[in-house]
Amino acid sequence: LKGLLSFLISLVAAVYFALLADVSWVAVAVMAVASLLGGQLGVERLQLGPLQPARRHVLRQHGSADIDREH
Question: How far apart are CA 8 and CA 58, in angstroms?
Fold first, then answer.
């Protein structure tokens, strides 16, 4: 549900900017390709190994003080 909501919000924002803003379509294309590749590579990487190191990396990147807490 959270993923669907995020998609819908992004879609509304994208349509709004495409119709009402001066958009650099070359930048849009580069960002779209990079986003799709990064998302796919991230999923594949997480499926290869244990999740704990990946969780710690994400939490460190976002400044969490509680990186060693087990869920």
Answer: 25
The structure tokens listed for 19 are 């119709």
pLDDT digits (tens, 9 = 90+) for 5-55: 998 999 999 899 889 989 899 998 999 999 888 888 877 776 776 667 777
Helical residues (DSSP H) of the chain, grouped into ranges? 2-20, 25-48, 51-61
Where is 61: in which H helix or E strand?
Answer: helix 51-61
- Cβ atoms of 34 and 25 closer than 8 Å: no
Q: How far are the Cα atoms of 8, 10, 66, 71 from residue 5, in angstroms, in the given order?
A: 5, 9, 28, 25
